[in-house]
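Predict the 3D structure for this chain.
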Amino acid sequence: MENLENKKDLTNENIVHICKNGIQYLQFRKLLEYKDILTHAYSIGKENFRTNKGKDKPIDDIEYKNSMYNYRKLCDAIGCNFNNLIKPIQRHTNQVKIVEKKINKDKPDINLIQYEDLDGIITSKKDLVLASTNADCILFLFFDPIKKVIANVHSGWRGTSMQISVETIKKMKTLGCMPENIICCIMPSIRKCHFEVKEDVKNIFYNQCRNMKELNEIITKDDKGETWFVDTVKINQILLKKEGLKEENIIDSGICSVCNSDLIHSYRVEKQNFSLATAIISLI
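Done. Predicted structure below.
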């Protein structure tokens, strides 16, 4: 493992910052308690993990190959099989799917129509490597250590407004999971300090959260009263507790992607040429 001396270290009470095999990533201390049955990581640094640009914007071959190389390096670093990678085509939906097996035999399941318009995947099967990507949006890694079920979920502000985190818990319950056993880890994402929105988006969250006692903490006006700041992480924490997750099992990295854009990809900082980070998780 490489020394982080003289480099920025994002380690805190919930996460450890690791540099290994030429790639940097974060791991959650809580999930490391189960390293005999689970491996996971959230990529940091300037590597790009983009594999798709949208229905009308095919990815450049060189960018795709570079992303595949980066995925392989990250998988190798944490000890999971790159060829077992499964990556949905994220579209800011609240759709979550249970995955039982791979489709491709000898290469990752990437850019497949079977994973179109999905923003969350769940499995109880060993060795399937679930992946998601972000550049400011929230990514969740879920793990039930009793039933040995994992989920990897992308929740942008649209996904949060459509409660994809709640949909994930409902799907995990169909596999026998009990909410009080589920651990949810929240990756680096844009935080309230930088999630500044106009009235149309503010109203979506106001209508969603109007009955929450924490409403005045979740949504605040800027000094000029022309825009608002919204705490989407807090919204999801409240939703998950309402679904039955224990507060101590909802573990936040506490890291803002905008504040740390030197190490974490941020759409708001990088603009149209933004790159993507990834979160991966696998039962082993």
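The two ends are 21 Å apart (CA to CA).
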